[in-house]
Amino acid sequence: MKGYYAGLDIGGTNGRLKICGSAGEILGEFTAPGCSLNTDGAEKSRLRYRDLVLPALLELNLEPGCCQGICVAASGIDSPSDEQVCRSSFEEMGFPHEKLLVLNDCEVFLHMTEDPALVVISGTGSVCFGRDGNGSIYRTGGWNHIISDEGSGFDMGLKTLKAVGDDLSGRIKCPVLTPLIIKETGLDTLEKIDDFINANLMEKSEIARLSLFAYQAAVLGDHEAIRIHWECGEALWGLIWDTKTKMAAADKISLWLWGSVLVKNDIIRGMVEEKVREGLPGTKIGIPEMSALDTALKVARS
Fold first, then answer.
1. Between 3.40.50.300, 3.10.105.10, 3.30.420.40, 3.50.50.60, what CATH number should domain 4-105 receive?
2. Looking at residues 107-132, what average pLDDT do you find?
3. Residue 1: what pLDDT?
């Protein structure tokens, strides 16, 4: 069996796998439902990993034991024990221990440069990592969506439901947001909103997708939707600032913005960029040219 390299980007909503041959030729790219180890748990995550990887290897006629390098960048890798749980799932499939690298899906971007850098992700969840000139890595946020994930799609979605609930209660007015949510979801009573939250609180992607409607309403000038964006932008700036203060001082530092919220929501991204320019002048801000998936594959080959 021929050797190959594999990179994985496993977020809370989607999991992606890219495989290349020994010479770097792309053999295939695959997508399946994702997971977050810290909220979905070990068993569900183990099954999601297998459902992403094993059918792909079967289709390409590849064996886990022939892998020359695999980098798993996965959501919810928050501690050495989480890393071991994830690692065990891949070793169980047959991947060699010495060829396997497991990282948090945000941390992988720090491998794009050897210089001091920060990366903040806001997608379904949120987290910020930083690496200083000494090579030390620091983290803020991303522990789980109940006590953390501030400024994420889930956070925006939950704030959206609260605003719509307050509108239905007669406490505030959301002239654009509430009709949009009712039209798109059918959540037109407090009872339905309550049932929806109870049913989806642990399946956070369903609540996170409501952030798309908050963005649409904000573009149309809904003041409550704009407030939600402002609060989430402030929260993401807080993650960046708190991470930077833990790092050793540096003359130059790069900040990478990633995740569906920061990449696709220009309102949030603009707010964060403005805060960084004010609070950390001279910081180079950008969206990575290479995706998390391609970065993971690059790391696997290095």
1. 3.30.420.40
2. 90
3. 66
